[in-house]
Amino acid sequence: MGGARVGDYFALLKPKVMSLVVFTALIGLLLAPGEIHPVVAAIAILCIALGGGASGALNMWYDSDIDAVMSRTANRPIPSGRVERDDALTLGLVLSFFSVVTLGLATNWFAAGFLAFTIFFYAVVYSMWLKRSTPQNIVIGGAAGAFPPMVGWAAVTGGVSLEGFVLFLIVFLWTPPHFWALALYKQGDYGAAGVPMLPNVAGEQATKVQILVYSVLLVASTLAPQVLGFAGWLYTSVAVVTGASFLWLAVKLYRTGADTQMRRTARQLFTYSLSYLFIIFLALITDYAMHSLGVL
């Protein structure tokens, strides 16, 4: 092994996952009541991004054995031989320390502690414990990916609130249908790696039922911002339309019996879920901005 490039180390940070972390954290920061200097806000988002990247590096360090036997992950830097495991561990630990300390110095230590807990939850609770021990790994472990908007909120306010919790809840409830849809058409990979994803343990039909249940809860949670008064008709309209599409795909998947068609529909739901969360949060901040400017 050897000869790792900068791009290989960047890949350890799971940039696609990091982009979602950054986006949801930014929305939490922008929606939070109170003032924060633009430079401090930029530092806070950078720290949250680095914390998310640190989690990814620690996850790849620990999961390099199962990554090597899964087609979706076999080309990652460690199983492909481009980066040493110890280097990934060092990178993850250094970025964890730097991101938490810098966030604390720049904003407040509550937000820094929350970020530290988020990294710990993903790297230890999810990656080292839940992922290989229970088919509910995604449900419980999904909290790690749902914390960033609350961390962004805390960077401004120094605490948490019901509004911040709603942002957390949307991402938390989105995670199971998103990843179980992936697991349905990649269950051969998870089976080979010995990861007890729900389709491999409970079967496809039980997984489709769970996807449908969580999809209903997810769409219901997206209406909470309007109910609680921090979003208006623009956001709610988007939430209703996109939520109806999400539910339609979940119902379609539930009704699908043929193996090939089932995998195709599961892939459709997984792909749609990627853009769905982005649209929901973008609509939320757009609605807020237009109300702030007096346009709505």
From TrEMBL:
Q: Which GO terms describe its biological process?
A: heme O biosynthetic process
Q: Where in the cell is it found?
A: Cell membrane
Q: Which domain of life is it from?
A: Bacteria
Q: Please report a single Pfam family linked to this protein.
A: UbiA
Question: Keywords for this entry?
Answer: Cell membrane, Heme biosynthesis, Membrane, Transferase, Transmembrane, Transmembrane helix
Pathway field of the UniProt record reads: Porphyrin-containing compound metabolism; heme O biosynthesis; heme O from protoheme: step 1/1
Single GO term (MF) = protoheme IX farnesyltransferase activity
Predominant location of this chain? membrane
What role does it play?
Answer: Converts heme B (protoheme IX) to heme O by substitution of the vinyl group on carbon 2 of heme B porphyrin ring with a hydroxyethyl farnesyl side group.
Q: Which family does it belong to?
A: Belongs to the UbiA prenyltransferase family. Protoheme IX farnesyltransferase subfamily.
Protein known as:
Protoheme IX farnesyltransferase
**Organism, as annotated:** Arsenicitalea aurantiaca
